[in-house]
Specification:
Chain C: Residues 1-26 form the signal peptide. Chain C: This is ABC transporter substrate-binding protein. The complex is a heterotetramer of chains A (253), B (291), C (384) and D (314). Chain A has helices at 42-49, 72-78, 95-102, 111-116, 119-138, 154-167, 184-199, 211-217, 235-240, 242-252; strands spanning 4-13, 16-26, 31-35, 57-62, 65-66, 80-82, 172-176, 203-207, 220-225, 228-233. Chain A is of the alpha/beta class and 253 residues long. Chain A has 2 domains: 1-79 and 171-253, P-loop containing nucleotide triphosphate hydrolases (Rossmann fold, 3-Layer(aba) Sandwich), CATH 3.40.50.300; 88-169, no CATH class. By secondary structure, chain D is mainly alpha-helical. Helices cover 75% and strands 3% of the residues of chain D. Chain D contains 14 helices and 4 strands. Classes of the chains: A alpha/beta (253), B mainly alpha (291), C alpha/beta (384), D mainly alpha (314). Chains in contact: A-B, A-D, B-C, B-D, C-D.
Chain lengths: 253, 291, 384, 314
């Protein structure tokens, strides 16, 4: 059974095909990478999967359920969570509260209990704070637990987004270029975090430029260019695919 | 029947052209700085008041107009220099409050420097109504519409044909890139304020023979101008013009065919409806969030 | 959080300093309080009112005051906002301890202040037109201007004389015009007038040809009656002319100042309206008891401020004179006594007309106080 | 940190409110204070929308006026008791805010400003025009507030009621901010899409906070109507809406106590500035500009950060 299934997906922006007739499946418990040159449509694909954009045509099945017409927050409730290439940090909040927002689905979301500060809300909130602190530790942000998000360096913010996404307790986690803009050491640390996440049973879908990282941790790779599928398979298979080499690796060489 | 409709359209056109001129001022400053200048109405007021006070003091009309325009532009530049520029990196809301403060300040200044009476100017080319197919139009209305058209053409030329105008447009699209290209963002900001003050002054002068002016005249015009600019799509000059005309004509038709008490409400209902379907106004850029 | 305390204390200190400044209690002064709409939409009413009060109180003090006591004028600007009027009325009564209040430029501010003045028991002379202010009679409340109902009656009387019975109304949808409009509808049947069209405009509308076109196309309209003040009536007048409408155009007393003619220009020719004797001071008959009063006031005002006198300035003048006369008669500033004396005002000749108040009538003007005037060659001409 | 600021702040507020009357020599001071507190309550509510959720509204005076007129009309024309009248009005305003909020809160920035401004102006026009019900532009009288035979009379009594209401409002506001719902609201301000993908139903929360702030405005409007005893449609004018926003921003966005301070200062200023007479508008405008230029984050946040800096230096 597949966790995510994409069938004949297309997205147009004013006549330009950002994604064209794309189909693939992602199996649970794997790390799945999507690669492609700049502008290949990777981020658009993420935005389609997480319902930030609406597809022009095609179908996306999450858990065998069609996500058409669903809002991103509904998908989050179904177990899908993500990070962003252009950071979407809540800079107006402390770091830990960024993560706590991630845990929103598992808290009492009704208005009145919050307004009246019912003891149950306070208790759950305290637990949530502890849990989120442990998540920050998990992604290596222990020293930022009391920091304001606005004071954190770029690399830390990338991890903060991962922690926030994890706080939602997703089954499918989509990471959009988690290593972009990081130095080698930081990249390796992110690498470790992703592996650790995968070990907890979360399915990870990754968009990444860092080939070393992709080849090292992925169970499967999907290569796209101009919104279309170039190749799909294990890292070894994709690496050997001449189209991929030409379109992507070649271009980089 | 037709004459009646035509008369309503003329009425709408007169008001609409006035709103459009006010709206254009908003558009220019928004383009250069993404600031909504709530003191735009006060530019209009200063233009009209300064001219009529100088004419009353015995200056010939053309000289009074020229001086009033210069005065208003100086006010615009001063506003930019002393109030907007120091706060350039602040929140949008903060800057909005600054411009609201500026509008209160300028109104207070006008009431102290001049007075609280209503003032008028002689119509530029007489007060003999022009008869068109049973409907009438004042020559001054043609001045308003004509000046609006002239201003649009001039602005188009400035933004598309002159180097500085192009630089200003570039700044509106991407401030950082413009800066890297060596365009002085500060200068662009200042020119945009001078330009919209000029526009306000000109607008204030041509409409004064029709609507009269006093120190509070800018409030309503500012509000209608803002509505026009938003309805048309912020930062879009053509949009501001169309927005102004839509508001003006909607008001006139509403008072003609529905209820004059609810004509302003009708205009706002139309704006709300447009925004429900086109959240960025009639001609606004449909920006998709890049995430 | 200490900052909060600090700021709170600072704010209170500033507040207290600001409000106590200049209100030091001088034993031998008569304190006249005023709240006027010196700014805001009614500022061109409030401004001349304020100037008039200041000028005459100054003059009074130079001449030795009232019974040897200096008169102190304390005035505040309510900007036309009733809730501010309430606060300022309280300030005048509670904080400034005034003996009498003149003011309330608009009906709205006056009505709101009544809620404070009545329970506090301070004589209050309003300068606003609305009939609600004195009808029903309120113990402490008086007013000097003619009511909007009287203006309507005067106009309809004139129409009736000319055989006009079908009238179109166009009025401003703000306080003055709205109230005048309502009163007009109420009294029209009494004079056999039928309102066949009823349009409104907003005070700052740049154009009202749409409304006027509708009136023009209404069958049987014999005259148009415009109720409003400010620049609106001038725009109505201009648009009226533009549309080539030939029926008579009547305005209300709200435009009875030279400024209106200046704004409307040639289009104003032939307009008729009810006005106080003040605007036609020189044309009043030599035997007219109002003549000396209004000519003197007009001369003094225009000499002092280099601008044309308006009826509104006259309202303030009348209010002040009535108040001072009552204080003189009462022999003290005892509020109850002063109130009783104001109520006994009889035969006072003011800029608005002959004022004779009674327990049933806290305005004391009769319809004869209004005179029909017409614009001829750019000036008001007595048309009665 | 949060907790001490919360409880300390509330205690400080309550203390100031309890002690302030010691400096009030007469009823006029109480009257001004009551108006300041009323504005503060509206601003604390509005701050949830503007400061925390990052959504502008230039139409809240409209909701204030609807509350005022709702109470006025229900009590005088339909003889409903003041308390139920107030609650019915608030419920109706809440419903209205919900209905208009759903579509307009999809708009962003200046477009939202335009839409809320439009709503406010439409409300104002309706109140002005429907004279048979509302008394038209000249306004209508409102009976005093009474509850079970007890009538609220005099500024002193109103002061204590308003002070109590403000403390309660501030408490509720602080509760909300530091809760799952409050975090979600702040997240909406930070990044709508970021909040959405982790399960925050942003559009519902935006509508909810819009409704809450509108209900606050409506409740205060009702009380205001009973207190002053006379209302005109101008209490719902565009200027009043702008005034509320200025109070919030001046005090400091996303600062509950800042909103209180902003409201108090802006209510007192016109009273303090009467001595400058004709220059009042200039001074008021100048102060607004100056404060925003030099303290762009608002008064309270600026003061707090000053204290923090000094504390750190020590």
């Amino acid at each position: 059974m597949s966790l995510l299934k994409v069938e004949g997906l297309s997205k147009e922006f004013g006549g330009i095909h950002a994604i064209e007739d794309l189909s693939f499946t992602i199996n649970p418990g794997t790390i799945h990478s999507i690669i492609g040159p700049n502008g290949a449509g990777k981020t658009t694909l993420f935005n389609l999967i997480t319902a930030v954009y609406t597809p022009s045509c095609g179908k996306i099945l999450f858990d065998d359920k069609d996500i058409a017409g669903k809002k991103p927050y509904e998908l989050a409730a179904m177990g899908m969570s993500r990070t962003f290439q252009n950071l979407q940090i809540f800079f107006n909040m402390p770091a830990i509260e960024n993560v706590m927002v991630g845990h929103h689905l598992h808290l009492n979301r009704r208005f009145l209990p919050s307004f009246l500060r019912l003891p149950s809300v306070i208790r759950k909130d305290r637990e949530c704070r502890d849990y989120c602190a442990s998540l920050m530790e998990f992604v290596g942000l222990a020293k930022y637990v009391t920091a304001d998000a606005a004071q954190m360096p770029y690399g830390a913010l990338k991890r903060l987004e991962i922690a926030r996404a994890l706080a939602a307790k997703p089954r499918l986690l989509l990471l959009d270029e988690p290593a972009a803009g990081l130095n080698a050491t930081e990249s390796r640390e992110i690498d470790e975090v992703i592996k650790k996440v995968a070990q907890t049973g979360v399915t990870v879908v990754l968009v990444e430029h860092d080939m070393k990282m992709v080849m090292g941790i992925s169970d499967a790779i999907l290569a796209i260019d101009y919104g279309r599928k170039l190749a799909e398979g294990t890292p070894a298979e994709v690496r050997a695919n001449p189209d991929v080499v030409a379109a992507y690796l070649g271009a980089h060489a | 029947m037709f004459a009646e409709l035509l008369q309503y359209l003329f009425a709408g056109l007169t008001s609409g052209a006035i709103y459009a001129l006010a709206g254009l001022g908003f558009a220019i400053i928004y383009n250069a700085s993404h600031v909504i200048n709530f003191a735009q109405g006060e530019f209009i007021m200063i233009g009209g008041m300064a001219t009529s006070m100088m004419v009353a003091a015995g200056l010939p009309l053309p000289l009074a107009i020229a001086l009033a325009v210069v005065v208003t532009m100086m006010v615009g530049v001063a506003l930019e220099k002393f109030a907007i520029e120091p706060a350039r990196n602040s929140d949008v809301v903060t800057i909005i409050i600054i411009t609201i403060g500026a509008s209160i300040f300028l109104r207070g200044l006008a009431q102290v420097v001049w007075d609280k009476e209503f003032h008028s100017l002689p119509a530029f080319s007489g007060e003999t109504p022009i008869n068109v197919a049973g409907a009438t139009l004042m020559p001054q209305s043609i001045w308003v519409v004509g000046i609006s058209v002239l201003v649009i053409v001039a602005l188009w030329w400035f933004f598309n044909r002159t180097l500085f105008g192009k630089a200003m447009l570039a700044t509106s699209f991407n401030r950082l890139a413009a800066q890297l290209m060596g365009i002085g963002v500060k200068k662009v900001l200042m020119v945009s304020f001078a330009l919209s003050a000029l526009l306000g002054a000109v607008g204030g002068i041509v409409v004064t023979p029709i609507t009269f002016t006093n120190y509070e005249a800018g409030i309503m015009l500012g509000l209608k101008g803002f509505s026009a600019a938003v309805l048309g799509g912020l930062g879009n000059g053509l949009g501001a013009i169309v927005g102004g005309l839509v508001v003006g004509i909607a008001e006139a038709l509403a008072s003609g065919y529905l209820s004059s008490a609810y004509k302003d409400a009708v205009a706002f209902v139309i704006i709300l409806f447009v925004l429900f379907f086109l959240p960025n106004g009639l001609f606004g850029k449909k920006g998709t969030d890049r995430v | 959080m200490r900052s909060l305390v600090k700021w709170g204390v600072a704010a209170c200190a500033v507040f207290a300093a600001g409000t106590f400044a200049g209100t030091a209690q001088a034993a031998d002064t008569i304190k006249i309080g005023a709240f006027l709409s010196v700014t805001g939409p009614a500022s061109f009413l409030g401004e001349p009112e304020k100037k008039t009060l200041e000028m005459y109180v100054d003059r009074l003090n130079k001449d030795g005051g009232v019974r040897g006591k200096k008169v102190e004028l304390i005035h505040y600007d309510d900007a036309g906002a009733p809730d501010k009027a309430v606060t300022f009325a309280k300030r005048l009564i509670q904080n400034d301890n005034v003996d009498i209040i003149i003011g309330g430029t608009t009906t709205g501010t006056s009505m709101a202040a009544i809620k404070v003045v009545e329970p506090a028991g301070v004589p209050f002379i309003s300068l606003a037109g609305g009939i609600d202010i004195i009808d029903p009679v309120k113990k402490w409340v008086f007013k000097t201007p003619h009511t909007d109902r009287m203006a309507a009656e005067k106009v309809f009387l004139d129409m009736k004389k000319k055989g006009i019975s079908k009238v179109a109304m166009i009025s401003e949808d703000a306080g003055f015009g709205k109230s005048g409009h309502d009163q007009s509808l109420k009294v029209a049947p009494i004079y056999g007038i039928q309102i066949v069209a009823d349009e409104v405009y907003s005070p700052k509308d740049p154009d009202v040809t749409a409304q006027l076109t509708k009136i023009k196309n209404t069958a049987g309209v014999q005259a148009v009656f415009n109720f409003g003040f400010g620049q609106g009536p001038a725009i109505v007048t201009k648009n009226f002319k533009q549309l080539g409408m030939s029926v008579p155009l009547y305005q209300s007393h709200g435009v009875a100042s030279k400024d209106f003619i200046k704004l409307a220009g040639e289009a104003a020719e032939g307009i008729r309206l009810p006005a106080a004797g003040l605007v036609v001071a020189e044309q009043l008959g030599a035997t007219d008891p109002q003549k000396p009063v209004v000519t003197a006031f007009k001369k003094e005002y225009e000499a002092a401020f280099k601008s044309d006198v308006s009826t509104f300035a006259g309202h303030a003048y009348d209010g002040l004179q009535i108040a001072l006369a009552a204080i003189l008669r009462a022999g003290s500033t005892d509020k109850e006594k002063v109130r009783a004396e104001i109520e006994k005002t009889s035969g006072y000749v003011g800029t608005g007309g002959l004022v004779s108040m009674s327990p049933e009538d806290h305005m004391g003007l009769s319809l004869s106080a209004f005179r029909m005037v017409e614009v001829k060659k750019g000036d008001w001409v007595l048309a009665d | 940190m949060w907790k001490t600021a919360r409880i300390g702040g509330l205690a400080a507020l309550a203390t100031i409110l309890a002690l302030a009357p010691l400096g009030f020599p007469n009823a006029y001071f109480y009257d001004v204070a009551v108006k300041a507190l009323f504005n503060a309550v509206v601003c604390v509510g509005l701050n949830l929308l503007i400061g925390y959720a990052g959504q502008i509204s230039l139409g809240h005076a409209g909701f204030f006026a609807l509350g005022a007129y709702g109470s006025a009309i229900l009590t005088s024309t339909y003889k409903v008791a003041p308390l139920p009248a107030m609650l019915i009005s608030a419920a109706a305003v809440g419903l209205l805010a919900y209905l208009v909020g759903r579509p307009i809160l999809k708009l962003k920035g200046h477009y939202l400003a335009m839409a809320t401004l439009g709503i406010g102006i439409i409300i104002h026009i309706v109140l002005k025009t429907e004279a048979r019900i509302t008394g038209g532009p000249d306004g209508m009288s409102v009976d005093p507030f009474s509850l079970m035979g007890f009538t609220m009379m005099g500024d002193r009594m109103w002061y204590w009621a308003a002070a109590g209401l403000l403390v309660l409002t501030v408490w509720l506001s602080l509760n909300l901010i530091d809760s799952p719902v409050g975090r979600a609201l702040r997240a909406v301000h930070g990044s709508e899409v970021g909040a959405e993908v982790v399960g925050v139903d942003t559009s519902s929360y935006k509508v909810m906070v819009f409704v809450v702030s509108a209900v606050f405005a409506s409740l205060v409007g009702s009380l205001f109507a009973h207190k002053d005893g006379f209302i005109t449609p101008d209490i719902g004018s565009f200027f009043r809406s702008v005034e509320f926003v200025v109070m919030v921003v001046l005090g400091g966005m996303a600062s509950t106590f800042g909103s209180v301070i902003g409201a108090v200062i802006l209510t007192l200023l016109p009273q303090v500035l009467t001595f400058v007479e004709d220059y009042e508008a200039m001074v008021l405008g100048g102060i607004m500009m100056g404060m925003m230029i030099f303290l762009p984050k608002g008064l309270l946040p600026a003061v707090v950060s000053q204290f923090r800096k000094r504390g750190a230096a020590r």
